[in-house]
């Protein structure tokens, strides 16, 4: 069942990258997501958006405008409401080991909360140089204050990781990047992205092939251990 929640902030961070904050108290895990929709708009389906942060006032999302649905979200104003339901998904495992977190592009969003919860973790974020100006990159970096984070602009972020230092790796980003990460470290958890219609496993639109058979990314994931994933 969805609920209507108030928008506390919906600010453009850089071109097409937005920081959204919704009012309310939520019990969530890093790596989970909510389904969001603006009623009385041309959004026909809810959109899955991963959780960036949570505080005493509400929940934060960092999202990229990539289609008509997120375009509608970007045009909503403070004081308006969104329909949401969730949180969904298994989230990243809670770790008591040294963890390396690797995010590519908008895949950086769900890893911030992981880094906040694990003081022994280090977050590596790779961004494409062609997409952002130097000032925009500085603005993005400011969102990640308070955690141990290393940014790389252009090139391959994987080249900066000292793999032998880490017991566990968590990653989110482009599929090819996550596949490459899983080949570097044999204890890697990946957060998969698929088109989703419902968020509860009913529509089957997010089904994916795994070593244990077909799984639903929204319900069985989105986080899977690398040993389960069939890279296609």
UniProtKB/TrEMBL annotation:
Q: Recite the UniProt keywords alphabetically.
A: 2Fe-2S, Electron transport, FAD, Flavoprotein, Iron, Iron-sulfur, Metal-binding, Oxidoreductase, Transport
CC cofactor: [2Fe-2S] cluster; FAD
Question: InterPro entries per the record?
Answer: Cbr1-like_FAD-bd_dom, Cyt_c3_hydrogenase_gsu, Dihydroorotate_DH_ele_sf, Dihydroorotate_DH_Fe-S-bd, FAD-bd_FR_type, FNR_nucleotide-bd, PyrK_electron_transfer, Riboflavin_synthase-like_b-brl
Using the record for this protein, list the coiled-coil segments as residue ranges, or answer none: none
Q: Which residues bind [2Fe-2S] cluster?
A: 198, 203, 206, 218
Q: What is this protein called?
A: Dihydroorotate dehydrogenase, electron transfer subunit
* Group of enzyme by EC: oxidoreductase
Its source organism is Filifactor alocis (strain ATCC 35896 / CCUG 47790 / D40 B5) (Fusobacterium alocis)
Looking at the record, the residues that make up the FAD-binding FR-type domain are 1-94
Is Electron transport found in the keyword set? yes
Sequence similarity: Belongs to the PyrK family.
For this protein, the record's PANTHER family field holds: DIHYDROOROTATE DEHYDROGENASE B (NAD(+)), ELECTRON TRANSFER SUBUNIT (PTHR43513), DIHYDROOROTATE DEHYDROGENASE B (NAD(+)), ELECTRON TRANSFER SUBUNIT-RELATED (PTHR43513:SF3)
Q: Which GO terms describe its molecular function?
A: 2 iron, 2 sulfur cluster binding; dihydroorotate dehydrogenase (quinone) activity; flavin adenine dinucleotide binding; metal ion binding
User: Which residues does FAD bind?
Assistant: 47-50, 69-70
- The EC code for this enzyme is 1.3.5.2
The record's section on Pfam families has: DHODB_Fe-S_bind, FAD_binding_6
Q: Name one GO biological process term.
A: pyrimidine nucleotide biosynthetic process
Note describing how the cofactor binds: Binds 1 [2Fe-2S] cluster per subunit.
